[in-house]
Every structure is written in C-alpha cells, then in structure tokens.
Write a structure and sequence with these properties.
The protein is α+β, with helices and mostly antiparallel strands. The protein has helices at 42-52, 54-60, and strands at residues 15-20, 34-39, 71-75, 78-79, 95-100. Strand 3 (71-75) and strand 4 form a beta hairpin.
Length: 105
C-alpha cells in the first residue's frame, strides 16, 4: 500500500550550493565574492539570482533569459555546455563559477 501523500514522481529537493562571483560583477551583489543559494539546477539558480540580485542576473543573462555570449558558467570544473546546459543538476556543496570573457588588445 502506498502512502497517500507520496508523489509518484519525486521532486528534487533544493540543495545548498555556492556561486563564485567574479570581481567585475561583485558590485551587482554588494561586493560579495560568493553567494550561498538553495537550488536544484542552473536554471533555478539563475531564477533565484533574478529575484535576489536582479542587476547580477542582467549581467549574466540577456532579455530572453539566455546566458550571454561573454559569460561562462562552470559547475565545479565542468562547463555547463559539457553537462546539461541550464538543466544541469546541482548537488549539495557544488560550486558554480561565473566567468566573464577577458578581451583586450
């Protein structure tokens, strides 16, 4: 007999992760080098940033919600493109690093 309150499809529970903010974007989050968030994947992390730090979110994502071309997101040491993109799941203790492209001449 199944429990009447259990879902047939378990929902991923949010886990605490760390977001490493690069120096050029720290002014968007009161100078914090790291942020601690509870989330399940990169898409949800960006939604949380949009709520808490809208200026930081606009620096990472364009008006369509896509990650800007000059921004790279890494989960621990892997680029999100090498994982599941914005659907990359996050586990407790993961570190998401925001990297801005460096250009010069």
């Amino acid at each position: 007999m199944s429990h009447p309150f259990k879902s047939a499809h378990p929902v991923a529970s949010a886990t605490r992760i760390t977001v490493s903010v690069p120096t050029p974007l720290r002014n968007c989050c009161a100078g914090a080098p790291e942020l601690s968030l509870e989330t399940t994947n990169l898409r949800e992390m960006l939604e949380e940033l949009e709520q808490r730090y809208p200026t930081l979110h606009r620096s990472i994502c364009d008006e369509t919600g896509a990650v800007r071309r000059h921004i790279n997101l890494f989960v621990n040491t892997q680029h999100m493109r090498d994982r599941d993109g914005l659907d990359t799941p996050l586990a407790a203790g993961d570190v998401v690093t925001i990297m801005t492209a460096v250009s010069g001449g």
